[in-house]
Specification:
The protein is an alpha+beta fold. It contains 3 helices and 7 strands. Strands 1-2-3-4-5-6-7 form a 7-stranded antiparallel β-sheet, with helices on one face. The radius of gyration is 20 Å and the shape is globular.
């Protein structure tokens, strides 16, 4: 009987801590994402302008300030890579699964890198780069 109570207590503690961790996860700010040829629409509002020229792209604020530049390269066999530069900080980023505008915006939305006013949260951007960047840096 004592053993059964200990098992139930351990199960209750494990369930409570899992539930608490789930509650502590930050609510996603950007809940709707869509794209037009020259626009990025977030939460059903135009958030950014977008320019694509060949294998290069630029994401701009609505007042035409460059925020993000990217260059996509073919690796062959239908695979691609990209080098993304965050203009304000000059930081560069590359990830085999985050290639272009769409992948980047969806990843940003999932990590709450974009604020409600569509500015980029620099603290969360730094955490995002640290977590996902696969770019080889020189030591």
């Amino acid at each position: 009987m004592k053993f059964l109570k200990i098992i139930i207590l351990l199960f209750t503690i494990a369930f409570s801590s899992t539930k608490l961790a789930a509650q502590q996860k930050e609510e996603q700010i950007i809940k709707a994402v869509s794209f037009e040829t020259d626009k990025i629409i977030l939460n059903n509002k135009i958030a950014y302008n977008y320019i694509k020229e060949g294998n290069r792209f630029t994401i701009l604020s609505l007042d035409k300030q460059e925020l993000i530049k990217g260059e996509i390269s073919s690796l062959g066999n239908g695979k691609f890579s990209s080098l993304i530069t965050f203009v304000k900080s000059g930081k560069q980023f590359s990830n085999e699964k985050i290639i272009g505008r769409n992948d980047l915006i969806f990843a940003f939305a999932g990590e709450n890198v974009i604020n409600e006013d569509f500015t980029i949260n620099e603290v969360k951007l730094d955490a995002f780069i640290k977590k996902y960047n696969q770019l080889q840096t020189k030591s």
